[in-house]
Structure formats: structure tokens, C-alpha cells
Amino acid sequence: MGKGLIAAVLFVALGGCTTVKGTFCAVSAPLRLSAKAVDTLSDEEARALLAHNRKGEKLCGWRA
Questions:
Q1: How far apart are CA 53 and CA 31, in angstroms?
Q2: Which superkingdom does the taxonomy of this entry point to (predicted)?
Q3: Which residues are within 8 A (CB) of 64 and not within 5 positions of it... i.e. 6 or more apart?
Q4: Measured between alpha carbons, how far is 64 from 44 in angstroms, rounded to an integer?
Q5: What is this structure's pTM?
Q6: Among 4, 50, 54, 63, which is 20 to 30 Å from 15 by CA?
Q7: Per-domain boundaries in the chain
């Protein structure tokens, strides 16, 4: 997963903080990676991905 995609995910997640609750759920989906992709993530990228998925669990009812 490229850094550009992680940055885009982060912006979507942060943008959801200032919009109507349902907007994030309407435009986002859980991010799922292969084991190989997980092995290549930096700590910062992993934190951003986890934050995105946890926000979706809280706001949208996503299941892990």
C-alpha cells in the first residue's frame, strides 16, 4: 500500500470529524490488507489505518 493511499485515507478520516456523522459511513469502508501488505506498513501508516477502521466501527457499526 503506497503512502499516497494512506494519506488519502487519513484525510478522509480527518474530514469525517467535521462533517455530519452519516457522511463518513456513506463514503468510507473498512480497510483490509493482505499479510504481505501489513508487513510493509510503517508504524505511522498502521496507526492511520487502525484509526480509520476503529472510527468506522464506532460510527458505522463495522465489524472487525
A1: 7
A2: Bacteria
A3: 53, 57
A4: 20
A5: 0.63
A6: 63
A7: 3-60
